[in-house]
C-alpha cells in the first residue's frame, strides 16, 4: 500500500460560511482567529467538501465508501473526492494560500516541519472542547502525531511491522517456528539459504541489504532497542551500543553470503509492490514488512504458504518481543482553512468513529488507530493479519521521532547502512560519528542555532 509503506491522502474541505458572507447555498461555523475552536457546521448549511487523496483504484473506492457514512451524518454536506494527490501538492497549496481544509498524509516524517512552521494547526482546542480521550490511541501513535508537545495531527489507520516467513521452506529446512531472537534469525537464515550450481544465491534466508523492501533502519532499529535521538534531541549513534550491535549483525549476514553475491541476487529481484516481490516468489524465506503485505499476497500470491510473527529481538532487548515499529497515516488541518469547525468534524469522523475505522481497516488491510476499534468484533481477525493486531495492542510499540528536518535523519542512516553493506566504511564508529554530525548540523540549521 505504501513505501514502508507509507502513502498520502490529502483531504480538502472547502467550506463557505453563509452566515458571514451571505453567499447563497453555503454556510456553517468558522473560527474567530484567536485560537478558539471553530463551531460545527449548522444543520441547515449547505457545504461542499473537496477531498484530495493519494489513493487510487481499490483503495480510493474503499475511502469513498467510508465517506458515505460521513455524508449520512451530515446530509447537508457534499463530498467531492479527487485521488492521486501528494504531499508536494499540499505544500504548494498551503504556500499559495489555497490549502485543502483537511489533509491526510502517509508521511509522518513531514509532521515536524508542518507543526513547527504552522502549516498544520493545533487540534488541542477541538480535542479539549469535545472532551476527546486521546488515551484510546496507543502512546507510540500519539507520539508520531505530535511535535514538541503540539498535537497538529490525528492518526488515521496505522502500520505495524513484523516478520513474514515461508512455511514450506521452513519445513524443508527442519525449522518448526519463526525466530524470536536475532541470533535465531541469523541461524535460521543460514539454514534456509539455497544456492544455484554456480554458487550464486537461489533463495536467501534473510536479506541484509538496506534500504531494500522493508529493510530500513527504522524497521530494524526497534529489534535492537536503538534510538535515533537522545534526551537532548541530538543524534548519538556513534556512542550507542544498540546501533553498533545492529550494524554488526547486518555485516555478519553480509559476510555469510558475500557482498558480491548479495548484490547480484538483489539485482534480480522484482519490485517491492509488484507480483514479482521476492517473498511472493519464494526467493526470500523471511522478510520484514507491514501488515499491508497480507493484502498484496492475497491479491497476487494466493497459493503462498506463509506465516507472520513479531520481529525478532536482540538478547538485550528481549522484553520487547511482541512489539515493533508502528507508523501510519496522519490527518491534520492546514492553516488558512475557511471553516475549521467543519474541517474538524471530518477529521473527528475519520479518526475517532469506531465503525468508520473498522470499515476502512477491513477495506485496505491497515490497522485501526484506536484501541476501541481494535476491540471491535467486526474487525478482520484473519490469522496472518491478527499477528499485527496483536503487535499493535502489545503496549511495546516504537515509532520514528518527528523532527523539524523531516526524514533527513532517517535517510542519513539508511544511506550509511547501504555504504556499510557495500564495504565502503572501514571504521564503524568513525562512520557513525559522521552521520551524527550530518544530522545534528541539519537540526541546528533548522532551529537557527
Would you write up a description of this structure?
The chain is an alpha/beta fold. It has helices at residues 18-21, 57-73, 87-95, 111-117, 124-129, 139-144, 167-172, 182-192, 217-224, 241-257, 259-267, 293-300, 340-352, 354-364, 371-374, 383-392, 408-421, 428-446, and strands at 47-52, 77-82, 103-105, 154-166, 194-195, 201-206, 284-290, 306-309, 324-332, 397-398. Strand 1, helix 2 (57-73) and strand 2 (77-82) form a beta-alpha-beta unit. Helix 2 runs antiparallel to helix 14 and helix 17 packs antiparallel against helix 18 (428-446). It comes from Kibdelosporangium lantanae. Belongs to the bacterial solute-binding protein 1 family. InterPro entries: Bact_solute-bd_prot1, SBP.
Q: What's the short story on this structure?
A:
With 449 residues, the protein is an alpha/beta fold. It contains 18 helices and ten strands. The strands form two sheets. Strands 3, 4, 5, 6, 7, 8, 9 and 10 form an eight-stranded mixed sheet that branches. The protein has a two-stranded parallel sheet with strand order 1-2.
Amino acid at each position: 500500500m505504501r513505501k514502508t509503506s507509507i502513502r498520502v491522502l490529502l483531504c480538502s474541505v472547502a467550506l463557505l460560511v453563509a452566515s458571514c458572507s451571505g453567499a447563497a447555498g453555503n454556510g456553517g461555523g468558522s473560527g474567530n482567529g484567536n485560537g478558539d475552536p471553530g463551531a460545527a457546521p449548522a444543520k441547515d448549511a449547505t457545504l461542499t467538501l473537496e477531498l484530495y487523496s493519494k489513493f487510487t483504484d481499490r483503495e480510493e473506492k474503499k475511502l469513498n465508501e467510508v465517506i458515505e457514512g460521513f455524508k449520512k451524518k451530515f446530509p447537508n454536506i457534499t463530498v467531492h473526492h479527487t485521488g492521486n494527490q501528494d504531499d508536494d501538492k499540499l505544500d504548494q497549496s498551503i504556500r499559495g494560500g489555497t490549502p485543502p481544509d483537511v489533509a491526510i498524509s502517509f508521511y509522518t516524517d513531514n509532521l515536524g516541519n508542518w507543526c513547527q512552521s504552522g502549516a498544520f494547526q493545533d487540534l488541542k482546542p477541538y480535542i479539549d472542547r469535545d472532551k476527546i480521550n486521546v488515551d484510546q490511541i496507543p502512546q507510540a501513535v500519539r507520539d508520531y502525531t505530535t511535535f514538541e508537545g503540539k498535537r497538529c495531527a490525528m492518526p488515521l489507520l496505522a502500520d505495524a511491522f513484523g516478520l513474514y516467513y515461508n512455511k514450506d521452506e521452513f519445513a524443508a529446512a527442519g525449522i518448526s517456528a519463526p525466530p524470536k531472537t536475532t541470533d535465531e534469525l541469523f541461524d535460521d537464515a543460514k539454514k534456509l539459504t539455497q544456492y544455484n550450481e554456480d554458487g550464486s544465491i537461489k533463495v536467501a534466508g534473510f536479506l541484509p541489504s538496506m534500504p531494500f523492501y522493508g529493510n530500513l533502519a527504522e524497521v530494524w532499529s526497534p529489534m535492537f532497542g536503538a534510538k535515533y535521538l537522545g534526551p537532548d534531541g541530538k543524534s548519538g549513534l556513534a556512542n550507542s551500543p544498540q546501533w553498533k550491535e545492529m550494524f554488526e549483525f547486518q555485516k555478519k549476514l553480509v559476510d555469510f553470503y558475500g557482498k558480491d553475491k548479495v548484490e547480484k541476487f538483489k539485482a534480480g529481484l522484482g519490485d517491492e509492490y509488484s507480483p514479482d516481490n521476492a517473498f511472493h516468489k519464494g526467493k526470500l524465506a523471511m522478510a520484514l514488512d507491514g501488515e499491508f503485505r497480507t493484502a498484496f499476497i492475497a491479491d497476487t500470491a494466493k497459493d503462498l504458504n506463509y506465516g507472520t510473527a513479531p520481529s525478532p529481538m536482540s538478547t538485550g532487548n528481549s522484553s520487547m518481543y511482541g512489539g515493533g515499529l508502528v507508523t501510519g497515516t496522519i490527518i491534520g488541518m492546514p492553516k488558512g482553512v475557511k471553516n475549521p469547525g467543519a474541517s474538524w468534524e471530518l477529521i473527528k469522523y475519520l479518526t475517532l468513529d469506531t465503525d468508520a475505522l473498522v470499515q476502512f481497516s477491513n477495506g485496505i488491510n491497515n490497522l485501526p488507530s484506536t484501541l476501541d476499534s481494535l476491540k471491535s468484533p467486526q474487525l478482520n481477525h484473519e490469522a496472518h493479519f491478527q499477528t499485527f493486531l496483536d503487535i499493535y495492542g502489545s503496549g511495546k510499540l516504537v515509532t520514528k521521532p518527528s523532527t523539524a528536518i523531516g526524514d533527513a535523519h532517517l535517510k542519513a542512516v539508511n544511506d550509511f547502512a547501504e555504504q556499510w553493506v557495500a564495504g565502503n566504511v572501514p571504521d564503524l564508529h568513525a562512520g557513525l560519528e559522521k552521520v551524527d554530525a550530518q544530522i545534528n548540523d541539519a537540526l541546528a540549521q533548522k532551529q537557527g542555532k
